[in-house]
Design a protein that fits this description.
This protein has two domains: 1-49 and 58-73, Roll (SH3 type barrels); 79-107, no CATH class. The chain has strands at 10-13, 22-29, 34-37, 42-47, 57-62, 65-66, 70-72, 83-90, 93-100. The chain is elongated and about 50 Å long. The chain is mainly beta. This is Large ribosomal subunit protein uL24. Pfam families: KOW, ribosomal_L24. Belongs to the universal ribosomal protein uL24 family.
Length: 107
């Protein structure tokens, strides 16, 4: 499964308890079709202390959400947008560029 959302992209959540929240993608899981977004879908998790001196307790952890429930925010116009693709060059290498469907910005 190919995903048009990558690590470091800014996205907005479209559905679920965190609808309307924006955050940066911390990790993309293309084999599962999920992404982990900073500050979204936070769960409490019990952690045991380890020998390296890390303290145990209850910590907040971002959980994966389905990629269909988030939409990319264009870095140029700042609006939620669908993503188009176009062959082009970036830093002298041929690659597939992502394009904002609203303003035409290539990234």
């Amino acid at each position: 499964m190919s995903m048009s959302i990558k690590k470091g992209d800014k996205v907005e959540v479209l559905s679920g308890k965190d609808r309307g929240k924006q955050g940066v993608v911390l990790r993309a899981l293309p084999s599962e079709g999920k992404v982990i977004v900073e500050g979204v879908a936070v769960a409490k998790k019990a952690v045991k202390p380890n020998a390296a001196g890390q303290q145990g307790g209850i910590v907040d952890k971002e959980m994966p959400i389905d990629v269909s429930n988030v939409q990319l925010i264009c870095p140029e116009c700042g609006k939620r947008t669908r993503v188009g693709h176009e062959a082009g060059e970036l830093d002298g290498h041929k690659t597939k560029l992502r394009i904002c469907k609203k303003c035409g910005h290539k990234f």
